[in-house]
Amino acid sequence: MRLKNKVALITGGSSGIGRESAILFAQEGAKVVVTDINDEGGQETVRIIQDAGNDAAYFHADVAKASDCAAMVEFAEETYGALHILFNNAGIMHSDDGNAMSTEEEVFDLTMNINVKGVFFGCKYGIPALQRAGGGSIINTASFVAHLGAATPQIAYTASKGAVLSMTRELAIIHARENIRVNALCPGPLRTELLMKFLNTEAKKQRRLVHIPMGRFGEAKEMAKAALFLASDESSYTTGTEFLVDGGITAAYVTPE
Ligand code: NAD
């Protein structure tokens, strides 16, 4: 068991990467606090974990709200006695996110509030808990778009993930001597709800697939395995990284036919 005696908090745990990570972390011995704004999905994640005989609890928290983030950390410590792993994973990709001219200010602000401020709030309230626990691991979900520009624009989303990546580096440096590691997980294009809603026609899917050397979208389960490595003591000398798990997309200049 790779996370025995650890307590993990995962934001955006109702679906996709968050749900798969919650299930995997619990299988590996962690007690998992699942948080989200989608209560039904979050409770379903917890049910799946408990049905497998493992330990998890759900807490409603909007990561864009400071008070919710303070409360979710408090809930984790009260419920399980400590917090060792903080996975700031919740994020949105707004359907009206486009180029600089077409994107409304409200869409930009909402995206930044959830994707960037959400990570900031997670850390603002989570880091003191990790310090109380004697250290721990923070994983922030960024994206391959923090590394590559796309001709199908999502200007707010791309800006938000760049911010998550640079914030992660600085957090890693600041807390390196406190036994707190901070890493970014940079997924490639995944076959989850979030992206499939955006690439909603076969033509749009194919347009993206052309650029992925492996010729397929990634799976949330594959991200969970990468997150498990960053969460566990196996990555004890790893901090400040941008862990790319992307089917090779950022390495490619030309992809195979
Ligand atoms: P998903 O939509 O399946 O999961 C995102 C979860 O976040 C949902 O359960 C949603 O309810 C929750 N959420 C949304 N707003 C929230 C808020 N304000 N407070 C709390 N929870 C909120 O998508 P996913 O693909 O699993 O995405 C997880 C992370 O991975 C996101 O940060 C996303 O940007 C990132 N990511 C996804 C892809 C991809 O291709 N799917 C690629 C790179 C990065």
Summary tags:
257 residues; alpha/beta; seven-stranded parallel beta sheet; 9 helices; 44% helix; binds nicotinamide-adenine-dinucleotide
Describe this structure in words.
This protein is of the alpha/beta class. The longest helix is centred in the middle third of the chain and has 20 residues, at about 155-175. Helix 1 (about 15-25) links the parallel strand 1 (about 5-10) and strand 2. The protein has one domain: NAD(P)-binding Rossmann-like Domain (Rossmann fold, 3-Layer(aba) Sandwich). Helix 1 packs across helix 9 (about 220-230), helix 3 (about 65-80) packs parallel to helix 5 and helix 4 (about 105-115) runs parallel beside helix 6 (about 155-175). The model has no long low-confidence stretch (mean pLDDT about 95). It is about 45% helix and about 15% strand.
Brief digest:
The protein is of the alpha/beta class and 257 residues long. The protein is 44% helix and 15% strand. Bound molecules: nicotinamide-adenine-dinucleotide (NAD).
The profile of the biggest β sheet is: 7 strands, parallel
CA(first)-CA(last) distance: 41 Å
Overall 3D form:
globular
What's the number of helices?
9
- C-alpha Rg (nearest Å): 17 Å
- Briefly, what CATH class? Alpha Beta
**Tally of DSSP β-strands:** 7
The tally of domains stands at: 1
Mean pLDDT score, rounded? 97
| CATH-level-2 architecture | 3-Layer(aba) Sandwich
Spans where pLDDT lies below 50 across 5 or more residues: none
Level of helix content? 40-55%
Order of helices and strands: EHEHEHEHHEHEHHHE
Q: Could you tell me the strand content as a percent range?
A: 5-15%
